[in-house]
Amino acid sequence: MARRDPRRGFRRHRPPPGVCPVAAGGAIDAANHTESGRRYLLWKSDGNCCETDTWIHLQPTTWDGTRTTGEPVRLIRQDRDWEGSLVEAPTLVKRGDHYVLFYSADAYGGDGYKIGYAGRTPSPAPARRRPPRW
């Protein structure tokens, strides 16, 4: 990360990582979601590196996204046959009162890599997940 100093230009800035669950394999595939003036970080726990589950999380952050402000919420993990050993690369979209989480699944190095989605309304009902259709 770099920060701009008006007198000296850009300087390298290395804050500690905001999210790094070492026991879960670390965190990768970060994306952000902004809604009603609040910012959230989406990220994947990289469990496939160490043969544990991969989860996609949602976590609130500061307005500039540099610090987390609350605990992560687990959204989905690889629990469908077509998802193979992982879920990753999340993107969250809201249309009206419906949320759609797009994500990739399975091994990226072959023909089995897929894009899936999970949908949810703002109710306590569980997310409905759909496999890809080509």
Concise account of the structure shown:
This protein has 134 residues and is mainly beta.
Largest sheet: 4 strands, antiparallel
Overall 3D geometry?
Answer: globular
What name goes with the CATH superfamily?
A: Glycosyl hydrolase domain, family 43
The count of strands amounts to 10
Number of domains: 1
The string of secondary-structure elements, in order, is: EEEEEEEEEE
Strand order of the largest sheet: 3-4-5-6
Strand content: over 45%
Q: Residue-averaged pLDDT, rounded?
A: 82
**What is the CATH fold-level name?**
Tachylectin-2, Chain A
Helix content: under 10%
Specify the oligomeric state: single chain
> What is the terminal-to-terminal distance?
39 Å
Give the CATH architecture: 5 Propeller
Please count the helical segments: 0
The structural class is mainly beta
Please give the CATH class.
Answer: Mainly Beta
Q: Rg from C-alpha positions? A: 17 Å
Write the layout of secondary structure elements.
Layout lengths: L1 E4 L3 E4 L14 E9 L2 E8 L9 E7 L11 E5 L9 E9 L2 E8 L8 E7 L7 E3 L4
Antiparallel strand pairs: 1-2, 3-4, 4-5, 5-6, 7-8, 8-9, 9-10
List keywords for this structure.
single chain; 134 residues; mainly beta; Tachylectin-2, Chain A; four-stranded antiparallel beta sheet; 10 strands; 0% helix
Structure report:
The chain is mainly beta and 134 residues long. The chain has a single domain (19-130), classed as Tachylectin-2, Chain A (5 Propeller), CATH 2.115.10. Helices cover 0% and strands 48% of the residues. It has no helices and ten strands. A hairpin with a 3-residue loop joins strand 1 (2-5) and strand 2 (9-12). It starts with a strand and ends with a strand.
